[in-house]
Structures are given as C-alpha cells and as structure tokens.
Amino acid sequence: MNARYPWKRGTVWFFALLLASSLFALTACQKDQTTPPQGQNQNQGDQAANPPAAQVQLVPISYTEADKENIRNTAKFTGVASIYVPQKAVPDDKIDQVQGNGKVMTVKFKHMAVLESPEELRPPGQESEKEVKLSIGTADWLTVNGQRALYLKQGDTFIAIQPLQGTAPEAIEAIAETLAPLE
Question: How far apart are CA 136 and CA 154, in angstroms?
Fold first, then answer.
C-alpha cells in the first residue's frame, strides 16, 4: 500500500471482509434450499406449479388515434393485411414504438413486443419448447437467438409475443388471449 495514504489499507480490508461475509451468507442460504427428488414436483398439485391465466392481473390497454394510424401505416409498409393488437396488458404497459423491417411489423410496448408478419416468423425446423392451448388457438413457446417468444397465428397473420422486463410467461399467454383486430 502507499505510505501517503495509510487509511486506504483499512478501507480495502473493510470492503474485502464485507465481500467475504456476503458471499458466506449467500452460500449458507443456498445450502438450506433443497431440491425435490427426481420425478416429484416441489409444488403440490398442478395449480400451484402452473397458475391459470385468470390469476394474472391485466388491465385494458387503450390506443390513441395516432397509435392506430402509426400501426396501420407500418402494417401497410410490411404487408400485414390483418392487424391484431392486445386488448389487455400488464398494469402500466403502453406503446413505446412501432417499426417495420422487411415483412415484420413490431409493436413494442414497455413490457412486451408484438411482432406480426404475413409470413411465418418461426425459424424452419425449430421445435416447440412448450405448446399452449389458448381460447384463440394453439401457441408455442420458442427461444430464438436467446429471445423467448410465444408464437401463434391469427387469420392470415403470424404473431410472436416477446416478454420484456421480466414479464411472466403466464402474463404473455393471458395477453395473447386478448388479441383482437385493430379497429
């Protein structure tokens, strides 16, 4: 250590001890956690493990005339003939931006991104990680390039909904149930 700053030695030791004690406490907490034996579910019953979409809190989402016009113009540019938008979303969600890239329109919200295209969005040969039965049809969870998304088709429009900012998959599934044509 530098002789000009003798106080630095004490500060360095203090932070080293603080870091070591934090790591020790974290390790001790993790040792107390146990995993269930193979084949047994930690949660008793399917209801606790897979909460129904009805338990997800959604609120109605509104679109301004400017939002609708922006979506319509972008859809026309990307070739999306039938536009679907969520009617409900997680609390405080709102449109952040609308953009088009080739034949894909992206409506980005604060907590999700909705991609729509007249062409299949799923990469060819990509296997479904989980199939979900929705009231509007069947959807599949896939991870493409590190981004997880729920893929489905409504009419002639292919749709992918990506969770953002830690939005739960159950919330995305519940939001997908509310997709309706843009009025």
Answer: 8
